[in-house]
Design brief:
Layout (H helix, E strand, L loop, with lengths): L2 H9 L28 H56 L2 H11 L9 E2 L6 E2 L35 E2 L2 E2 L3 H11 L15
Antiparallel strand pairs: 1-2, 3-4
Protein name: Cell division protein FtsL
Keywords: Membrane, Transmembrane, Transmembrane helix
């Protein structure tokens, strides 16, 4: 090689690393994989699951509705039982009233002594007159001085089923006659009108 070539070779710039071009951000989409045909088994399972959910929801709805009707019926039975219990408490209160007890005692022949006697247990002494009670009572439980009791008006005495606190029960015929006497006359020819001259 000649000197001139060597000098030219030395003067020749050394090749530098090739410059890299900026990498592109957008790339081509790879071709999609071929779609597989859906399997029939998966479709049947999905459809069966949807049907099972619908049936379960409908049955729960029916059971909820049925239980709400049963609850309403039981609530009504509870109210009825409460009302019956209250009626029985009122009846017991009426039957245990002193007026009713005194009327039953009088019907049995018991009398109230005007001067009661007492027995002192410590020494066995009798305090009071010590005489037997008479055949008539000093208090008339069903008399005109008694206060009316609406719970016992029609309640028969235990000793005499035909008697009440008001006295002997009237027969049904007499009660019907009293009701008919209280009613106004029947209108057969229209409304009455006054006669004028």
């Amino acid at each position: 090689m000649s000197l001139a070539n060597t000098a030219a070779a030395r003067v020749r710039p050394t090749p530098s690393a090739p410059e890299r071009a900026p990498r592109r951000r957008l790339q081509a989409v790879p071709a999609p994989a071929p779609r597989r045909r859906p399997r029939l088994g998966y479709a049947i399972v999905a459809f069966g699951g949807a049907v099972a959910i619908a049936v379960a929801q409908m049955s729960l709805s029916v059971l909820t509705t049925q239980s709400s009707y049963e609850l309403a019926a039981l609530t009504q039975e509870g109210r009825t039982a409460t009302l019956q219990a209250q009626e029985l408490r009122d009846e017991v209160a009426g039957l245990s009233s002193p007026q009713y007890l005194a009327a039953n005692a009088a019907a049995l022949g018991m009398v109230i002594d005007p001067s009661p006697s007492f027995l002192r247990l410590s020494d066995g002494a009798i305090i009071g007159e010590g005489n037997a009670a008479g055949s008539t009572s000093t208090v008339d439980a069903a008399g005109r001085g008694a206060v009316g009791n609406a719970l016992l008006d029609r309640r028969p005495l235990t000793t005499d089923p035909d008697a009440t606190l008001a006295g002997k029960e009237e027969t049904d015929d007499k009660a019907e006659e009293d009701v008919e006497a209280e009613l106004p006359p029947a209108l057969t020819e229209g409304l009455p009108s006054p006669t004028t001259h």
